[in-house]
Design goal:
The chain has 116 residues and is of the alpha+beta class. It has one domain: Ubiquitin-like (UB roll), CATH 3.10.20.30. Helices cover 14% and strands 22% of the residues. The protein contains 2 helices and 7 strands, in the order βββαβαβββ. Strands 2-1-7-4-5 form a 5-stranded mixed beta sheet, covered by helices on one side. The chain has a two-stranded antiparallel sheet with strand order 3-6. The longest helix has 9 residues. It is globular and about 30 Å long.
C-alpha cells in the first residue's frame, strides 16, 4: 500500500491505484478543491510535490497546465497513487471563497488517460 504524506497534515496508507485527489479527501481529510469534478479542466486540484512525483503525466494534464502557463504543480485528479509520495495541498476549499470543493471525482482517471 503506498504511503501519502501531506505536508503539515500527516502520513496515510492509500489503496494502490487510487486517484490522488480522492486520497487527499478520503484518507487525509484535506478539503482539496476539484471544481470540475476531476476531469482535468480547471486546475483547482493542483498540488506541489515534495517527493515521489510520478514520471508519467496524462495528455489532459499536460495540456491544461500548459494552457494556463502553470509550472511546478501537478493536477491531483490525473495522478494514481502507485508509489509513496509527499505533497503540499495548495488548492483548498478553506479561504477559496467557493461554496464547495466540487462534485466528487469518479474513481477512475477522467478523461480516459493517454500518457505523454
Amino acid at each position: 500500500m503506498p504511503k501519502l504524506t501531506v505536508d503539515g497534515i500527516g502520513q496515510f496508507d492509500v489503496p494502490e491505484g487510487k486517484r490522488l485527489v480522492l486520497a487527499l479527501t478520503d484518507e487525509a481529510g484535506v478539503d482539496q478543491l476539484h471544481a470540475c469534478g476531476g476531469n482535468a479542466r480547471c486546475t483547482t486540484c493542483r498540488v506541489e510535490f515534495v517527493s515521489g512525483e510520478p514520471a508519467q503525466m496524462t495528455v489532459a494534464e499536460q495540456q491544461v497546465l500548459a494552457a494556463r502557463g502553470l509550472t511546478g504543480v501537478r493536477l491531483s485528479c490525473q495522478i494514481r497513487c502507485d508509489q509513496d509520495m509527499s505533497v503540499r495541498a495548495i488548492s483548498r476549499l478553506e479561504g477559496s471563497g467557493r461554496k464547495d470543493a466540487g462534485s466528487r471525482p469518479a474513481d477512475d482517471l477522467q478523461p480516459p488517460p493517454q500518457f505523454v
